[in-house]
Amino acid sequence: MFLEKISNHLYGFIGFIWTLFLQGLLTILPITLTLAVFNVSFRLLKSWLEPIQKVCPPNLACIPHSEIFLTIIIIFLIGTIIRLFMLRSLVHAFEALLLKVPIIRTVYRGIQQLVNAFNPQDQITFKEVVYLEFPIEGVYSIGFLTSKLPVELSPNDNQSYVSVFVPTTPMPTSGFFVVVPQNKIQKTDLTHQEAIALIISGGIIKPDRFCQDDDYC
Known about the structure:
By secondary structure, the protein is α+β, with helices and mostly antiparallel strands.
């Protein structure tokens, strides 16, 4: 009897310690993973900007991460110069030059259209957020409707098809281009920003307007 009480107290103490450990782990884990993601992204960004460090003025070379600050300043200067001096025509001329190079043309045009598609102020943008069965039947993915497919490109002339971009988690700038029958997509009430937040977070970050009576929000 005495040993049984000791055993019960011991199990209770171990359970209490384990509960405290889990609470601490679940509290610190999101913060740690967030810092880890930003750390990896920061290191990757610095490796991309390493050539700028070599041309950085000597008086700025002693400043930590000066290449990042210099890049931000350059971006602001380019935007200001284009805005003030109406140099958009020169940018278009340079883009036209790039589009004449066979291999670069394909890569540049694809990246340009994908980046512009996430800009709601651009004319070339994702039309709306939809659900579609992808990658297999019965499994639904969030996609961005891009356009209606011309009849000449449709797999079946007797049916209307649409082009849909299905982004991947957690990098929505990469994904799949799929051609889907128009009657196979389902329109949603999600905005572009809400859909991107869902995709990046793997479904964790849900729109507040849908979480009033949802225990999983």
